[in-house]
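Example for tutorial group B:
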């Protein structure tokens, strides 16, 4: 596919991505000329540890897990990528081997964004450079918050904090929220550095106390205030550290 065709195919997709749609249209067009849409099936590996990358990915649909693997095959999930989010930017920009294992949790659609195009756009449009810095700063903040939780918070606090991070509110009921678990409980538990049994036990404990209502992967939070109090998170801290502020582009979650 030649450059005009790539621009025409990728530009409408980039314009829907929260991290890109505020950029000047000509900057988006320049970046789109180096993008290629990619499909992945459930469990397909997208990037392996040690792989050299010439760009990064934008997730359009589906779910992707980012994990570290031990030599004996044990896995620790570090993050679950949602539609509208990016991954692998740091390794691409640094020119270093990718340190993680990226695998599709569901069937997925992605955009591969080639780095040379982004670099040229950064030189011409300062807004592009600022956007890329923001994306990587958000990733750093998210990992720092996760590290703090793993080191200092109990399993119950981590589960409550995760629910708060994923919660979606409505204007009609500001203190209530709901969410859909973004992946199977096994994956979410690994992301929180707890066992699946502990994760289920903590969910049941919150439900017994009336702090949540659980129906399979659907969770309703009757009072955000009460759940924040349990997690030791006040309202300002909750909004400041929110990875959940990056809303999915499409909510067609397949069972994992």
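The residue assignment follows.
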């Amino acid at each position: 596919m030649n450059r005009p065709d790539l621009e025409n195919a990728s530009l409408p997709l980039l314009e829907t991505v929260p991290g890109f749609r505020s950029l000047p249209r000509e900057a988006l067009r320049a970046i789109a000329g180096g993008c290629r849409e990619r499909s992945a099936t459930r469990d397909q590996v997208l990037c392996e540890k040690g792989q050299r990358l010439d760009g990064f990915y934008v997730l359009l649909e589906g779910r992707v897990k980012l994990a570290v693997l031990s030599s004996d095959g044990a896995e620790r999930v570090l993050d679950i990528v949602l539609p509208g989010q990016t991954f692998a930017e740091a390794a691409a920009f640094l020119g270093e081997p990718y340190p993680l294992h990226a695998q599709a949790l569901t069937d997925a659609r992605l955009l591969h964004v080639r780095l040379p195009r982004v670099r040229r756009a950064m030189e011409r449009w300062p807004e592009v450079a600022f956007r890329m810095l923001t994306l990587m700063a958000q990733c750093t903040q998210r990992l720092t918050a996760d590290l703090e939780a793993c080191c200092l918070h109990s399993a119950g606090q981590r589960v409550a904090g995760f629910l708060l991070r994923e919660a979606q509110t409505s204007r009609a009921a500001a203190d209530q929220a709901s969410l859909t678990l973004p992946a199977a409980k096994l994956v979410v538990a690994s992301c929180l550095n707890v066992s699946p049994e502990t994760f289920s036990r903590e969910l049941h404990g919150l439900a017994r106390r009336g702090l949540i209502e659980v129906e399979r992967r659907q969770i309703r939070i009757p009072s955000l205030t009460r759940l924040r109090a349990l997690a030791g998170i006040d309202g300002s801290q909750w909004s400041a550290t929110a990875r959940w502020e990056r809303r999915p582009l499409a909510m067609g979650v397949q069972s994992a």
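The chain has two domains: 3-148, 154-240. Compare this with the pattern of hydrophobic and polar residues in the output above.
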